[in-house]
Design brief:
This protein has seven helices and ten strands. About 30% of the residues are buried. Helix 1 packs antiparallel against helix 2 and helix 1 packs parallel to helix 3. It has two domains: about 60 residues, Integrase, N-terminal zinc-binding domain (Arc Repressor Mutant, subunit A, Orthogonal Bundle); about 170 residues, 2-Layer Sandwich (Alpha-Beta Plaits), CATH 3.30.70. The radius of gyration is 19 Å and the shape is globular. Helices cover about 45% and strands about 25% of the residues. With about 240 residues, the protein is α+β, with helices and mostly antiparallel strands. The strands form three sheets. Strands 3-1-2-9 form a four-stranded antiparallel sheet. A four-stranded antiparallel sheet has the order 5-6-4-7, covered by helices on one side. It has a two-stranded parallel sheet with strand order 8-10. The chain starts with 6 loop residues before the first helix and ends in a 7-residue tail after the last strand.
Length: about 240
């Protein structure tokens, strides 16, 4: 009977995954600082990035160093924000947001992953028109009508635009400029999101054939694994239980 992964092996894998998450968060904080001011109380985008980092258990010292780097105090290489558009298996539209200090490296890495996994890189605005930038908060309600009603009531009172209940989740949609106030109101109501942020949400979902579901999931996982990639948005309507 074969042995499973050792405790040390599992810990090393978890540490590597955590380090990759931290790398992405640090880049997000750096870019948010550079785009505004190094004070989270006066820079909403930075405040959101810091909140996300704290939720991931990043230390305050690490956050402060990232802010310092973003302000140019340490002379580090300038980070920039890039967006690539493309297609996945079955013609699924993809938006790939990145933070990088080397555009040449990033586009080469993104193109290579797409080409090797049934996708291809598109031109600017080739798929962006199929998405809308909005605030999104996802709550695990498990189909419980009482929980769904609580989310709905709190969200609409807070100024959200819509609440969508599907696959055991309640997704709150709001304007990007209202995201912070809606999130705060929901937390005050005792509701804590599984996922929250300002994202590119597809205007319509496209059905994926069974043979393309796994290929699309693999492609998105490989894009997410790139250090420079901060978020991958797509317009696929995936079966319940498939996370991509």
């Amino acid at each position: 009977m074969g042995r499973g992964p050792s405790i040390e092996g599992r810990k090393n894998a978890e540490d590597a995954k955590r380090a990759k998450v931290f790398t992405k968060l640090i880049r997000e904080i750096t870019v948010a600082t550079r785009a505004g001011v190094p004070d989270p109380s006066s820079n909403p985008r930075l405040r959101a990035a810091v909140d996300k980092a704290l939720s991931a258990n990043m230390t305050k010292d690490t956050i402060e160093r990232a802010i310092k780097r973003g302000s140019g105090a340490d002379g580090g290489a300038a980070m920039e924000e890039l967006r690539y558009e493309g297609y996945g298996p079955g013609g699924i539209a993809l938006i790939i947001d990145c933070f990088t200090d080397n555009q040449t490296r990033t586009v080469a890495d993104v193109r290579a992953v797409l080409n090797k996994n049934g996708g291809n890189l598109g031109t600017t605005n080739s798929v962006a028109f199929q998405f809308t930038r909005c605030g999104e908060l996802v709550f695990a309600t498990g189909g419980d009508e009482a929980k769904e009603e609580k989310v709905l009531e709190a969200a609409l009172d807070a100024g959200a635009d819509d609440v969508i209940n599907e696959n055991g989740e309640s997704t709150v949609i709001c304007a990007p400029e209202n995201f912070e106030s809606v999130q705060h109101a929901l937390i005050e109501a005792g509701l804590h999101a599984e996922h929250a942020g300002v994202t590119m949400r597809p205007n319509n979902r496209v059905a994926v054939t069974p043979e393309n579901v796994e290929a699309l999931q693999t492609l998105i996982d490989k894009l997410d694994a790139l250090d420079d990639v901060s978020e991958v948005s797509h317009n696929a309507a995936l079966p319940a239980g498939v996370d991509a």
